[in-house]
Amino acid sequence: MIWWLRGKLKFLYSALRKNKVDREIDDELRFHLEMTIKNNLNAGMTTEEATQDALESFGSLTRIQETSREVRRGLTLESIFNDIQQGLRLMCKHPGFSAVLVVTMALGIGANAAIFSVVDSVLLRPLPYERSHELALIWSNFQLMGAPRAPSSGIQLREIRDRSHLLQDVAGIWVGNGTLAGNLEPEQIKVGDVTTNFFSVLGVHPKLGKGFTPQKSGNGAQEIVLTDGLWQRRFGGDKNIVGQGILLNSRTFTVVAVMPRDFVLAFPPDANVPLNVQAYIPFQEDLNEQPKDLYYLRLLARMKPDVNIEQAQSEANSVAAQLRNEYAEYNKENLQLAIMPLHQDVVRDLRPALLALFVGAGLVLLISCFNVSNLLLARAGTRRKEIALRAAIGASRRRIARQLVTESLVVCLFGGALGLVIGWIGLKLLLSLRPEILARTGSVRFNLPLLAFVSAVTFGCGLLAGLAPLLELRKLKLIEPLKEESRTSSARGKQRTRSLLMVSEMALGFVLLVGAGLMIRTLIQLHRVSPGFNPSHVLTFEMIPRGSQALLRTGFVDECEQRLKALPGVEEVGAISHLPLDDYPNWYSPFAPEGVTEDQKAHLLADYRAVTPGYFQAIGAQLLAGRYFTKHDNAAGHKVVIVDSMLARQMWPGKDALGKRLNVEQYTDDGFATDWAEIVGVIEHVKSQSLLKSIRGQIYIPYPQSAREHLSFVVRSSQDPAALAPAVRNEISRIDKARAIAKVRPMDDYITTAMAPTKFTTVLAGVFAILALLLATVGIYAVISYSVTQRTHEMGVRIALGARPVDILRLVLKEGLVLTFVGLAIGLAGALVLSNYLSSLLFGVTAMDPITYFVMALIIPVASIAACWRPARRAAAGNPLDILRN
Questions:
Q1: How many CA atoms lie within 13 A of 593 on its CB side?
Q2: Are strands 251-258 and 223-226 parallel, antiparallel or unpaired?
Q3: Domain limits of the chain?
Q4: CA distances from 594 to 81, 166, 604, 802 (A)
């Protein structure tokens, strides 16, 4: 340590007394030279002979001086600064050439900066909770029923908490709607029903207040926690809000806390815990007294510090086995428990797309590096004599190599700075396209990790871009550039290197084009897919119906539908408990046709929906058989249901489902119950949760027979839905001023939101592919243009010997197309391998889609011909006499 410190101090001392060190070195060299001359004179030489012999024995004084300075002073900042100055002088000497280099690198670095900021925020950065790596979700796994990620019941929450030794604590949440009243207009908000330990398990502390009063289970406490957004918007940021009472669902709740501004509720999309929860209340019922098979809770667990996910899963398997042994309900359904790390589960659906885009951005950066290498190699060719002269007067290969690398790094440094600007702009555009899931992990922004990443990429690109000139320097015989006849052989060597780089660019560009083509085909197929209804000219909104009893809610809904249908331009009105493609918690449960065995019942699940008679006509669903519901299908009438085509095919393939009976779940004033109902209709399957896949069959129940406490109204109009919204709001207010409506939006918006993740990936893949094609086109133009310049004399000879302009044109185009097709062949192999990793992102198209490969294989040669055309025309239009004379 002492020797190292002494060396550093000596280095610093030498750097500070630079002029003195230089004089000492010069004096010492002069002394040795004079002593050698003196010895030669004493040996009988003449003065001229003595001097000549001394100089020859010493070699290059310049090299000796430079080597001595490096030994005495080390590789000082001064020498590095001199290299940078030389790089800057070259950039200023050729501003156009330098601008091309900088912009080329900036495009590659900017694309990577934008994508890395997202990858860092979503995949790398931990969730914004204390020790977030300890958090996990507990899913009920009913594998036999096709529901591996199901919610849990209150009894499960209690039993897991009591039996586990590896979990610190377990909390539960369920999200519904609530009407917030008071001095201002009534407002419908998302309300999270949670266990009182929810925020402590999550690892978030309120910025105002202390949170819920700790109790073991559903306590019915009239307490509420507000988010910062609701507090600011509704209550003006009143710092005395804690302790005040507010009216929610006609009940008074005391505000006990306000959450921080940056608080994010991070749950995976299929947990049905939306991002826009604005208030939290404790469960108003005792969870221990609810039915054991009432599955609706999302369980959040915090593992003990020294426990990993494998250990927690092993314990969960043991707990599930105990529950199956002790409770008949869980044994019948073969209950399993699945433990998933919270962060991993939140990004589960987005990870493949982000990684694919990150790889795509990396390929664009690689193409940029190859382009800059090509251009630097071309410039090195024009500086061969300069490099040879440097070597002749004493510069070592190491010194020349260092200068070339520094010049490359200077270019990339400017490219990195401009790339940050491009990346910032790209990130803003990217976030305008982002799917909702990007917001589940916190804010996406530029930060120190991004700056570190860009710095590392810039330095790496500088080294990679300078690699080709360095390799050529190793092959160069430094005396030959001083001879005119050496030009041709050296140029051919550089041309081979440039051609290799160009082939690589074409191969990488084709891979990106294929990936973008597959995503474009997916988006096209997604636009063509039928959601099972007609979203055009449909306005929707959410509302909590008035009335604590089913009969009162039914009467209120009937009145609303009649009044809305009387509005000008309204054609149909209906309502449904769970609107297609909405984020309201799903309702799915077992069902059983007549005649099935107990084993068969264990495999049957369906999505349940309560609808009013006009819903199917309003949403534009297609009736395949039977009839729609009517006003006679009321609570006192015969129990009936309508099933979708997916369930009908599943249960009665090739047969008529009408008239069959199902044992189904219904919602009553006393809770959920099962009863037998007759199938009176079959409709086309509706894509209720995703446009990409059909998950379960659907059972529709008349609303009067299953009057849920949440409804979404559907209004079909002959006019623009947005123009109808004010009239709808006014009409509901006239019916009941205490009723608030929310999410007033056209049904088309839900379709757009469902397509957002695919659109996000497709747009970025397309941008990367266009960048790659543009850079590859510029690269092949540079290669062919440089080749034409080097072969100008040859072209003149050919024309002088009788070659026609078309022959020269064909010759140049052939050279470019040969490089293109070689790159295309290599790129095809790469695309066949890498496209398989996109399979999970594709819909309606395979990873080996021949149409995509064929179209993209045509684009590459067309771009190549466009790039080669100008150099080819220039070569063909040359005057042979002028060429030969020059």
A1: 18
A2: parallel
A3: 2-74, 86-125+353-482, 132-304, 489-529+751-886, 545-739
A4: 87, 44, 13, 92
Q: How far apart are CA 656 and CA 652, in angstroms?
A: 7
The two structure tokens encoding residue 806: 């078309």
pLDDT (tens digit per residue) in 22-64:
666 566 666 666 677 677 777 777 777 767 766 666 555 555 5
Q: Tell me, what DSSP letter sits at residue 806?
A: H
- Give the whole-angstrom CA distance, residue 255 versus residue 279: 10
pLDDT in tens, 108-160: 898 888 888 888 888 888 888 999 999 999 999 887 667 788 899 999 999 99
Helices (H), 216-302: 228-235
User: From its phi and psi, is residue 394 left (phi > 0), alpha (psi between -120 and 50) or beta?
Assistant: left
pTM for this model (two decimals): 0.80
Q: Which of 608, 614, 617 is nearest to 633 (CA)?
A: 614
Task: Provide long-range contacts, Cβ within 8 A and 24+ apart, for 674-678.
Answer: 675/639, 676/639, 677/639, 677/640, 677/641, 677/701, 678/638, 678/639, 678/640, 678/641
**Residues 193 and 220 sit within 8 Å (Cβ to Cβ):** no
Q: For residue 437, which of 271, 191, 685 has the smallest C-alpha distance? A: 271
Burial class, 16, CB count within 10 angstroms (exposed 0-12 / middle 13-18 / buried 19+) = exposed
**Comparing C-alpha atoms, which of 293, 285, 284 is closest to residue 155?**
293
Task: State the CB neighbour count (10 A cutoff) for residue 621.
Answer: 24
Buried b (16+ CB within 10 A) or exposed e, 202-226: bebebebbebbeeeebbbebebbbb
**Nearest residue to 272 via CA among 217, 159, 190:** 190
Can you tell me the distance from the alpha carbon of 802 to that of 814, in angstroms, rounded to the nearest whole number? 19
* Mean pLDDT of the 215-236 span: 81
* DSSP, residue by residue, 779-802: HHHHHHHHHHHHTHHHHHHHHHTT
